[in-house]
Structure formats: structure tokens, C-alpha cells
């Protein structure tokens, strides 16, 4: 196979069915003028930018032969008339982007073919059974910053949250045959992610990058009974989560939209409000993906630096399994030594 064809083979297995937010049925801009403006912007942009930029990479996918190929080989190809295929791909990306920008999250159900999802679940479970994994457990502040003794221990600045899960890092995954590794390294997926999560000015600036770290690039999470993640803000602007095996009970991803106005604000009152009313099962002030629910093969984008989020403790025996794919806005980014030790045992 030519170098481009291998990653493409995986991308051909993607199933772009629809995009869902939190129970919103129509996530496209309701205003037709806005929609046209957006499409016009996309159409002109590819002429203005260099061929190496993410925007033009995506334009090539959306307009050119790759989109034809992608859609004609995916299982949803029969949903589309040939002449409207390119438009459908662009619409999927725009729906996703709109949902991400207006609710902090975008969800594409059944993004990856189920036989590949099964392969990834099998790989994760096999590696865990061979003890090729690390049990990451910690008490941390919501901000993932060390304690500040000028605040009381129960102040939102210092209040501790408990998180635990098994992690199978990128270095343990078979780079040649794992669908996760191949999908993560495909330029098409990166272009799609960039299109969804970056603002227009950022897209103009340039691309996203895969991680420079051999461990956190793409990794499996396994949440067993009582495992979960306490409320936290991420250090990175956004997260991309491929759901493989949702928890049967518990293990829900919850997000509080617009908890803080920028990635470094403290916003103690809003954080306190979330902590005050939360119990393990369900937060009345958070959003959950419900309609349709997150299922095997769902791709979830979330803006984790601005929006407080958590994974509720898993209650059922069956583990919740997902994969996190790390994309960065700067080349060669790596977590600091503390995070590597704490989360990956490296
Ligand atoms: O496992 C998940 O669904 C979310 C993980 C998460 O919250 C994070 O990576 O910050």
C-alpha cells in the first residue's frame, strides 16, 4: 500500500452518521444566512491558504477525491446520493463544530466501525491481562494545581477530588496493527479534529500536532467498579475521546458548560456551585450526552480547559473502556514529569 493508503483504509471505516449534542435535535445554525456565510468562508479559504495548512487539507478531503473515496467505502455510502456526498461530509464537520463551539461538546455516534471497536476492546483487555498497564489513582484539586495554603482546605481552590482508572499507554500498543494507533496517526483524522475544535483564526494560523510523547499520544482507559474521574479542568484546551465500551451503570461523562471564561480563570463561585450540588450519581447542573447516548464507536470532542467535567464512578462490573487521542497546538508537546509519573507510571 502507498503511505497514504494505510491510514486511509482505517478512515474509510469511519461511519459519519450524525452529530449529537445534549439532546439537541438540530445543531446546524438555525439561521440560513449564517450557514451560507460559513460555507462561503470555507469555499474561499482554500484558495487563500497554503496547501500544507489544516484548512486546505480538510478542504481537499471535503471537496476532492478523498471524500468520494471515504464515503463510497464507508457503510453509510448508501445514505448519500453521489452528487451530494461531498456536501454531506462538510455538513457533518460543520454540525460538529457548531455543537462543540456552542455547548463545549460534540458527539458523533458510531464514528468507527464496530468490528474495529471490538478489536480495540480486545487489545485493551489483553494488554491489561498481561499487566501491560498502570493503575492511576490520585486526589487532586479541580484545577490540577498543587494546594494553596492561603485558602482553606474546603475552599474550591483546594477541595480534593478523587480519580482512578487503568491506563494502557501508547508505547504498549501495537503500532503496526492496532486500529487505535493507525487512526491516531492518520492525517485525515487530525485535519478533521482541527476543523472541529479550532477557531477560524487558529485554523488560519496552522495545524494541530500529534503528541511528542511516546506514552500519552493515544491510550486506552479502563474504568472498573468505583473508578471514575473527579471534577477537573484539563490543562489542554480540548479532548478527543473514542468510546469503546460504555459503562452499563455509572461511568457517565458530565460537563458544566462555560464554568470559566478563559482557560486560567479561577471562577470560585461557579466551581463551588458545582461541588455543592453534586453527588456521585448525577449532577443537576451538568450536561450529559443522552440523545442519542454515547455508544461503542462514538467520537466525543470536549472543551476540557474551560468546562468543569468528570466521569461518575462506574457501578456495574463490566469495565468502561475508551481511548483518548491527544492533539496539541504546538509541535513536540509532552506532559511534565509529574503528570507522566502520576498518570502513566513512567
Ligand atoms: O474518559 C472520559 O470519558 C473523559 C476523560 C477526561 O475527562 C479527561 O481526559 O480529561
Distinct ligands, ions and cofactors found in the model? 2-oxoglutaric acid
Query: How many DSSP E strands?
Result: 13
CATH topology (level 3) name of the largest domain? Jelly Rolls
Approximately how much beta-strand content do the residues carry? 15-25%
Tell me about the biggest sheet? Answer: 7 strands, antiparallel
Strand order of the largest sheet: 1-10-7-12-5-3-2
Overall pLDDT: 78
Distance between the termini: 35 Å
Q: Total domains, how many?
A: 2
The parts where pLDDT drops under 50 for at least 5 residues are: 1-18, 20-55, 71-81
Question: How many helices?
Answer: 11
* Overall 3D form: globular
Which structural category do the helix and sheet elements fall into? Answer: alpha+beta
Helix content: 25-40%
The CATH architecture assignment of the largest domain turns out to be Sandwich
> What is the chains' assembly state?
single chain
Element-level helix/strand string: HHHHHEHEEHHHEEEEEHEEEEEH
Query: Mind telling me the CATH class of the largest domain?
Result: Mainly Beta
Compute the CA-based radius of gyration. Answer: 20 Å
> CATH superfamily membership of the largest domain, which one?
q2cbj1_9rhob like domain
Pfam families: HalD
Family: Belongs to the iron/ascorbate-dependent oxidoreductase family.
Protein name: Fe2OG dioxygenase domain-containing protein
Organism: Seminavis robusta
Amino acid at each position: 500500500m502507498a503511505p497514504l493508503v494505510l491510514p486511509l483504509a482505517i478512515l474509510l471505516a469511519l461511519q459519519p452518521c450524525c452529530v449529537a449534542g445534549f439532546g439537541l435535535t438540530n445543531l446546524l445554525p438555525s439561521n440560513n444566512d449564517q450557514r451560507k456565510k460559513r460555507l462561503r468562508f470555507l469555499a474561499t479559504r482554500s484558495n487563500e491558504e497554503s496547501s500544507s495548512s489544516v484548512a486546505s487539507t480538510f478542504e481537499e478531503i471535503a471537496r476532492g477525491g478523498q471524500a468520494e473515496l471515504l464515503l463510497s467505502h464507508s457503510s453509510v455510502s448508501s445514505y448519500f446520493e453521489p452528487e451530494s456526498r461531498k456536501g454531506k461530509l462538510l455538513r457533518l464537520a460543520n454540525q460538529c463544530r457548531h455543537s462543540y463551539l456552542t455547548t463545549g461538546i460534540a458527539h458523533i455516534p458510531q464514528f468507527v466501525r464496530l468490528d474495529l471497536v471490538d478489536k480495540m476492546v480486545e487489545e485493551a483487555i489483553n494488554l491489561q491481562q498481561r499487566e501491560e498497564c498502570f493503575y492511576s489513582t490520585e486526589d487532586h484539586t479541580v484545577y490540577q494545581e498543587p494546594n494553596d495554603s492561603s485558602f482553606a482546605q474546603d475552599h474550591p481552590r483546594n477541595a480534593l477530588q478523587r480519580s482512578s482508572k487503568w491506563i494502557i499507554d501508547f508505547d504498549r500498543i501495537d503500532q503496526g496493527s492496532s486500529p487505535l494507533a493507525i487512526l491516531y496517526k492518520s492525517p485525515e483524522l487530525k485535519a478533521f479534529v482541527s476543523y472541529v475544535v479550532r477557531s477560524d483564526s487558529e485554523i488560519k494560523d496552522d495545524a494541530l500536532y500529534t503528541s511528542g510523547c511516546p506514552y500519552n499520544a493515544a491510550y486506552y482507559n479502563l474504568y472498573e467498579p468505583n473508578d471514575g474521574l473527579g471534577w477537573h479542568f484539563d490543562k489542554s484546551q480540548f479532548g478527543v475521546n473514542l468510546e469503546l465500551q460504555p459503562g452499563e451503570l455509572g461511568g457517565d461523562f458530565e460537563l458544566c458548560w462555560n464554568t470559566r471564561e478563559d482557560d486560567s480563570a479561577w471562577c470560585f463561585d461557579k466551581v463551588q456551585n458545582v461541588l455543592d450540588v453534586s453527588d456521585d450519581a448525577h449532577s443537576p447542573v451538568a450536561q450529559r450526552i443522552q440523545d442519542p447516548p454515547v455508544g461503542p464507536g462514538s467520537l466525543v470532542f470536549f472543551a476540557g480547559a474551560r468546562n468543569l467535567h468528570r466521569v461518575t464512578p462506574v457501578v456495574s462490573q463490566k469495565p468502561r473502556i475508551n481511548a483518548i487521542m491527544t492533539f496539541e497546538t504546538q509541535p513536540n508537546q509532552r506532559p511534565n514529569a509529574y503528570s507522566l509519573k502520576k498518570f502513566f507510571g513512567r
